[in-house]
Amino acid sequence: MTRRTLFASSALPLLRNSRARAQGRAAPPAGKLKITGFEIHKVTLRWRDLVFLEVHTDGGITGLGEATLETRAEMVEQGLRWLEESFIGVDPAGPEDHWNRSYYRLSRWRNGPVANTALSAVDMALWDIEGKRLGVPVWRLLGGPIHNPLRAYFTHWSASLKNRSPSEFADLAVRTREKGWTAVKWTLPLKGSESERIAQSVAEVEAVRKAVGYSLDIGLEAAETFSPRSALEFAKALAPLRPLFLEEPVLRENPAGLGEVAAKSPVPIATGEGLLSRFEFRQLLEARGASIVQPDVLHAGGITELRKIANFAETYGVEIAPHQCSGPIGHVASLAAMSVCRNFLIQEWEAEDDAVYLELTGGKYPVQKSGFIGLPEGPGLGISVDFASFKKRFPFKKMTRRALL
Q1: Residue 402 binned pLDDT confidence (cut-offs 50, 70, 90)
Q2: What are the chain's domains?
Q3: Ramachandran region of residue 156, left (φ > 0), alpha (ψ -120 to 50) or beta?
Q4: How far apart are the C-alpha atoms of 131 and 381, rounded to whole Å?
Q5: How many angstroms separate the CA atoms of 321 and 332, rounded?
Q6: pTM
Q7: Could you tell me if 39 and 54 are in contact, meaning their C-beta atoms sit under 8 angstroms apart?
Q8: Residue-level pLDDT at 398
Q9: Using one digit for the tens of pLDDT, what is the confidence trace for 54-83?
Q10: Coil, strand, or helix at residue 375?
Q11: Is 117 left (phi over 0), alpha (psi -120 to 50) or beta?
Q12: Backbone dihedral region for residue 220 (phi beyond 0: left; psi -120 to 50: alpha; all else: beta)
């Protein structure tokens, strides 16, 4: 080794530290890290239970992930504990390799919502650690951004309405546009005959169009409640009002049925929140079952897999509008993944919780401006969460949907 080489190698840590100090941040630790354990936090906020993960390391860096699986918090907690055994003492570097190891090699029983949600949370946390260790945002590690800010829509938009009258929809649309939003989504009425539900839904959309014209894009959640026949009848009734998409009109387990609807529908069909990997999306894409796919970073395999699903969909000319209505970590993780996807269309956003998330992240949580959400600038996922305050304000209550049956 020459004197010049020796000097250069020994000076690298000094240069890195001085550069970090100049940018006003702590220098990332040199050398390897080891995972020392998982810490799990559960809360209940409004209508859902949220599950968060902290992956601790011996270097003082903690990665954040989210494992929210509505009504199955305790099941996914056990899934995380099962994964924890294989991560203790392991260097968290290389999220892709850890994903492959966890998905393919830890067990041949590798799929399902609980297993995939647990893996998704760990994947997010490993990306967060990697970004913090290197002092850069996750979206930069992924090669981005292509998109910043990213367009978002206000989901569960009509939940606050008492009577679902057309006048209520019109008034809310005006207020929503005044706040800057350019797109919303709401769930169709689920009670009544098909004809009654279709008529009421069309009246709601018409009221919004009369109030704000086409300045507000509209997504409609059908919650898998139509047959292919009635879904097409509904789509034809909606077509003159130009909604952005009709979401899950028929069962997601039936890609052929979705393909039948999508081929004849004058309204774009969207689906995918319940699909768990690129392998399941393959069946949907091959059936031409949607022009917009909606994977969820919390269930489809984390940041690593979400990006692959988007790239796969792009080869079919299909856009991506990720599902996301859970906690703050899931929201920013989805943004990071979408920032590098050419076929990104729009991000679902649970705007009713923005004020809470902004407070519990010390003001780091991104909020919409003119219908767009900016990427967090900090290293890793760019946010921290005050879990102690979160749990104190919103204590965990076991949730179930059995009362609805």
Answers
A1: low
A2: 141-383 (3.20.20.120)
A3: left
A4: 7
A5: 14
A6: 0.91
A7: yes
A8: 86
A9: 999 999 999 999 999 999 999 999 999 999
A10: coil
A11: alpha
A12: beta
